[in-house]
Amino acid sequence: MSSPTTSDPTSATPVTVYWRPGCGFCAGLLRSLERHDLVFERRNIWEDEEAAAHVRAVANGSETVPTVQVGEHSLVNPSADDVFSALAEVDPDAVPDGWTPREPGVVGRTLGRLLGG
User: Fold this and answer.
1) How far, in Å, CA of 68 to CA of 113, rounded?
2) Could you give the CA distance from residue 47 to residue 111 in angstroms, rounded to a whole number?
3) What is the pLDDT of residues 74-96, one digit of tens each?
4) Are 42 and 7 in contact (CB under 8 A)?
5) Is the distance from CB of 19 to CB of 65 less than 8 angstroms?
6) Which residues contact 65 (CB under 8 A, 6 or more apart)?
7) How would you write the chain as a 3-class SS string?
C-alpha cells in the first residue's frame, strides 16, 4: 500500500503538515492522518526555510510543530480530530470516510449550556 502523503507542492490537497524530524507530536499526528488515509502535503521546517517562516508567522514567532494549514486556516499543534474538523469546513468531500466529529464531554456540554450553545 502506498503512502497517502505527498510532497508535491502543486498537489490539490487542502492540507499541509509542517513538521520536523524527532518531533514526537509530529510523528503521532502524521500516523493518525495516515491511518485515516488522508492525502496531505508534508513540509519539513528544517529543510524548507519557506515552511519554517510560515510556521513562525502563524505560531507567534516560534517554530512550533506540528503546524497544519487547512485551506486558509492554520492550526498549531492540533489533534487529528482538529484537522478533520477544519477540513470538514473547507472541503467536506476530502474528509476520510467514517470520520465523525467527537461529541463534547461533560465539561464541553456544561460550557455549551452556560454559554448559550
Assistant:
1) 30
2) 42
3) 999 999 999 999 999 989 888 88
4) yes
5) yes
6) 18, 19, 20, 23, 25, 26, 45, 55, 77
7) CCCCEECCCCCCCCEEEEECCCCHHHHHHHHHHHHCCCCEEEEECCCCHHHHHHHHHHCCCCCCCCEEEECCEEEECCCHHHHHHHHHHHCHHHCCCCCCCCCCCHHHHHHHHHCCC
Alpha carbon 15 to its chain's center: 7
Per-residue model confidence (pLDDT) at position 74: 96
For position 97, what pLDDT does the model report?
84
The one-letter amino acid code at 23 reads: C
Low-confidence spans in the chain with pLDDT less than 70: 1-12, 104, 108-109, 117
Cell of 47: 529543510
Query: Distance between CA atoms of 17 and 46, rounded to whole angstroms?
Result: 13
Residue 108 has phi, psi (to 5 degrees) of: -60, -45
